[in-house]
Amino acid sequence: MWTQKILLPLAVYAAAFVVGQEDRAQYALTDTGSTNGGNTFPGVARPLGMVKLGPDLYTGTDSYSGYQPTGNFTGFTMLHESGKGGAAKYGVVSQMPSNQTKNVLVDVSHVLASYRGQGLEQHFLGGNISVEREEDSARFFYTGFGTYDNGWNRAGPWTVYFCGRFNQPSTYKTFLGADFVTDDLVEFGEEPSYESKTARLGAVFSFTEYSLVSRVGVSLMSTDQACSNIEDEITDDMTLEDARDATRAAWNTEVFSKVSTSETNVTKLKQLYTAMYFMHLLPTNKTGENTLRESDEPYYDDIFTFWDIYRSLTPLLHILQPEYYEELIRSMVDVWRHDGWVSDARSSLHNGAVQGGTNGDIVFADAYVKGVRGKVNWEDAFSAMVKNAEVVPENNNDPRDPTGSTKEGRSALRDWLDLGFITPRFGRSVSRAVEYSVNDFSLATVALGLGRLGQFQTYYKRSHNWRNHWNKDMSALNFTGFLGPRDRDGFIAQDPLSCGGCYWQDFYYQALPWEYSFNAHHDIETMVELIGGAEQFVDRLEMTFTPGVSSGNAQFGHTLFNPGNEPSFQTPYLYSYVNRQDLTVQRSRFVAKSYFRPTPNGLPGNSDAGAMESWLLWNMIGLYPMTGQPIFFIGSPWFSDLTIDLGAGEKLEITAEGVGETTFYVQSLKVNGEQWDKTWVSWDDIFAQGGKLEFVLGKEQTEWATGDRQPSPGSHSVGEAKKLISRYLPEE
Ligand SMILES: *[C@@H]1O[C@H](CO)[C@@H](O)[C@H](O)[C@H]1NC(C)=O
Ligand SMILES: *[C@@H]1O[C@H](CO)[C@@H](O)[C@H](O)[C@H]1NC(C)=O
Ligand SMILES: *[C@@H]1O[C@H](CO)[C@@H](O)[C@H](O)[C@H]1NC(C)=O
Ligand SMILES: *[C@@H]1O[C@H](CO)[C@@H](O)[C@H](O)[C@H]1NC(C)=O
Ligand SMILES: *[C@@H]1O[C@H](CO)[C@@H](O)[C@H](O)[C@H]1NC(C)=O
Ligand SMILES: *[C@@H]1O[C@H](CO)[C@@H](O)[C@H](O)[C@H]1NC(C)=O
């Protein structure tokens, strides 16, 4: 979706929808998470579409989605992100309606400002606007482009083209800098245009009517494409209501139809469809809009970021939108093919910024083990992964962390390869070490699938390196043994309940040593041993969820578990590894019920491009993915029945007898009609060809799961691991 129509003034926000039975869009509250640090985008968008039309508010702090609940309105702009932090991005191709003088200000130089003072602010580098008269008409239309750079991902210059049409006659003036440079009435045929660096550039259109329709198309390719995008998507004879209805219909058919339930509790329905809405805003499908290369492959942009979304969002996108997902995987490979590196984060056609490991590796492995093949070139995908694991990326001298590249790749690789651990000469040394281990496990998995046994062995061994950071002398709250910083001479003293600044140059990024010590997700069996066995493991998890036990880092919540950030996402489910599924349900349910609401302030932290909402969705479904393995934790569903359309005529049906606000512990479960005693199911069990989960829920905490423990594929000798992983790889 490249175009949007706006009716002035602000009527685009009026809502008087005809509510039909299948209009699940009525439950998607698009302002959820838009205040209180959720940073979601509350404007108008299509599923995974490029255009996000919304208002920009100026308050003197970063407006990450453009919107803030207070502040001075500076215009409607066409491109935004949703649920990101860091520093503002986009806020371009602006229109500012003014009722007082019946003007529309088109400001080519408008961008969202940043106030973080880290050299991350966007710049307007130059552009052009030209105004022409519509044929046989007193109406004018405008075309042009703006070139911008920087923002959170420190992008190089990129250009957006625009084309705007009004349905009312007007006069206009263009401006450059502070001066208006044309007369009120311009002669036909003398349309001015300007090329500019850092100046203000735009045009003001003056109308005689208070109400008018403005249609704007954008493109990354050309003004011609921007103009034809309007004609393709929002024709001259369409009303605002038509455009709105078409957008609602797209959400209903492409997204909300994928999950159905007979539930009537409106709060739950709002939580379900609102969360689905926000996990379908990013990444954006910009296929056909990539100016950087000639390619027939799909192109996806606005990845914020795999660090945020690989745990819960991409595995759910795979299930709900298999076509998008395969295209995303192909796009990742194609970005490597043309730019040299796969992205961990990307927007405006540029990679950056990498917060931890190269977590695109985990996304690849997840797609591989779950049988995504289609048009994906897996040999190329694996080459992209190997580059991440072997080649030190060129330092882009990011002031956030000058010790190595933040653009792409693994900049702490030198230590990783030479020493098997990461010394503090690199920022985020400990949190990256545990992520690099999971990344290397992902390489091992795909290598095995491709029959590359030598590489399987190499990366499998490297995936154990996180153990080299286990400092058995670190202790807190009567627990000993945590992931700690070390240099060549040995460990460095570290409080498990503090991550210092928790930022780019610290030992741990955005989470406590306590939390990261649970993050070697491929090698949980070893982690349980290091912690002191199953009982200690459960006690330590319980301490994580004990109210009032919190860290010295004020940014974290009232427990050591932080519902608002990704390194904690898996933690409430880890009880299942030692067959305490009842505690998995107790803790994950508590988090979902206490920190999420379908209200503007209803997210516990930044949405992170929908990562937060996808975490909630899994909780509602009653499953949780272990990304990179074809394995799902069993939770407890919120609905007496829920059906997920898996495409190709397959579906997953979930029923829950006895479901209620206080009756949510699993008493028993049947999987495809068979009585189940394991805490987990595999991709093949319920997703590959569909399946059926029949829960019986109740008040009692029951230790019903007594069967085979969840696999810990990273905890074995190379030979045993080869057998174990081969068993769960899809047959070719
Ligand atoms: C918003 O505009 C008003 C009126 O011009 C001004 O007084 C106020 O300082 C502005 N607010 C901000 C946050 O800039
Ligand atoms: C715009 O201004 C005109 C004239 O003051 C007024 O009649 C009209 O109601 C205003 N429209 C809106 C939506 O404020
Ligand atoms: C800017 O627009 C004018 C027409 O108004 C055109 O002649 C000129 O080539 C444009 N410049 C660029 C760089 O597109
Ligand atoms: C509806 O769902 C909400 C959210 O789960 C819950 O708090 C509320 O108690 C439910 N209402 C009824 C009548 O079950
Ligand atoms: C992505 O966009 C391209 C170009 O519009 C389109 O052909 C393709 O079908 C889109 N992908 C999906 C999954 O809708
Ligand atoms: C640690 O153990 C000591 C001695 O058993 C006990 O007094 C103390 O309360 C424990 N601390 C915590 C946080 O459980």
Average pLDDT metric: 92
Number of strands: 30
Strand content: 15-25%
- In DSSP terms, counting alpha (H) and pi (I) runs of 4 or more, how many helices? 18
N- and C-termini, Cα separation: 37 Å
What share of residues is helical? 25-40%
Tell me about the largest β-sheet.
8 strands, antiparallel
- CATH-level-4 superfamily name of the largest domain: GH92 mannosidase domain
Strand order of the largest sheet: 2-3-4-5-6-12-10-11
Radius of gyration: 26 Å
Q: Which descriptor suits the 3D outline?
A: globular
Uncertain segments of ≥5 residues (pLDDT<50)?
1-21, 182-197
Small molecules bound:
2-acetamido-2-deoxy-beta-D-glucopyranose
What is the top-level CATH class of the largest domain? Alpha Beta
Number of domains: 2
**What fold name goes in the CATH topology slot of the largest domain?**
GH92 mannosidase fold
Structure, explained:
The longest helix has 21 residues, at 429-449. The chain is built from 18 helices and 30 strands. The chain folds into two domains: 3-8 and 52-242, Distorted Sandwich (Beta-galactosidase, Chain A, domain 5); 282-728, GH92 mannosidase fold (2-Layer Sandwich), CATH 3.30.2080. With 732 residues, it is of the alpha+beta class. The strands form eight sheets. It has an eight-stranded antiparallel β-sheet with strand order 2-3-4-5-6-12-10-11, with no helix packed on it. It has a six-stranded mixed β-sheet with strand order 14-25-26-30-27-28, covered by helices on one side. A five-stranded antiparallel β-sheet has the order 1-13-9-8-7. Helix 3 (266-278) crosses helix 16, helix 7 (360-369) packs parallel to helix 10 (429-449) and helix 8 packs antiparallel against helix 10 (429-449). It starts with a strand and ends with a helix. Residues 265, 267-268, 661 line the site of one 2-acetamido-2-deoxy-beta-D-glucopyranose. GO terms for molecular function: carbohydrate binding; peptide-N4-(N-acetyl-beta-glucosaminyl)asparagine amidase activity. It comes from Emericellopsis atlantica. Residues 32-101 form the Glycosyl hydrolase family 92 N-terminal domain. Residues 719-732 have a biased composition (Basic and acidic residues). One of its GO terms (cellular component) is nucleus.
